[in-house]
Design a protein that fits this description.
alpha+beta; 3-stranded mixed beta sheet; 4 helices; 3-stranded antiparallel beta sheet; single chain
Length: 200
């Protein structure tokens, strides 16, 4: 009898606990539904309206336009500046070279004055040699050098044959016998071809 009562008591307790569990489940489901509704409401609020979206896109396009115009203006300024620098370089590029030649011109004018005054012939020759050496050293300092010609093999890259001449010996054939006009190079680039007589 006591056992039956215990069983009935347990069943009653389970029946009392069951509605409590059901209530808890219902509360959780309700809370979840409320949370999902709040999230949906927040998402709807976060998404801009079509008008707001159009306004945002128009603002972005306007910003891009301004940046493009600034970039184009910068490029135009750069182009003008480099063009001006290039024109100045072409116009005044030889300035340094010409400044270096002026002292040589001064020396030549002094030599001409000395000749006109009837100076000593030996001193005049010495003066002209000094002027020549000064000019050659100035050219070398600017990487201008004379092309070796006489006795060298004829080379169309640096020599220009003015005429041919019968070679005095077999080893002179195809070689430069005489140099009519010296040639010059600037940094291994030919400034002027040497005009030469070639042995045949």
């Amino acid at each position: 009898m006591a056992k039956k009562e215990d069983k009935n008591k347990k069943v009653d307790e389970q029946q009392v606990e069951q509605p409590e569990l059901n209530e808890n489940i219902d509360k959780e489901e309700t809370a979840q539904e409320q949370d999902s509704q709040e999230e949906a409401t927040q998402e709807e609020a976060a998404e801009p309206t079509p008008e707001e979206r159009i306004a945002q896109l128009e603002a972005a396009i306007e910003k891009e336009k301004k940046e493009y115009l600034f970039l184009m203006a910068d490029f135009e300024n750069y182009r003008r500046r480099t063009l001006q620098e290039k024109q100045d370089l072409i116009k005044n590029g030889g300035q340094k070279v010409l400044e270096g030649i002026l002292p040589v011109v001064d020396d030549i004018e002094r030599a001409i004055d000395a000749i006109n005054q009837g100076g000593d012939l030996d001193s005049l020759k010495e003066g002209v040699d000094l002027i020549h050496n000064k000019l050659i050293s100035y050219l070398k300092s600017n990487n201008v050098e004379a092309i070796e010609s006489t006795g060298e093999l004829f080379d169309t890259d640096v020599h220009e044959a003015v005429t041919t001449f019968p070679a005095p010996s077999e080893d002179q054939k195809g070689r430069v016998i005489d140099t009519v006009l010296k040639g010059y190079k600037l940094n291994d680039k030919v400034l002027r071809h040497a005009k030469v007589v070639v042995g045949q």
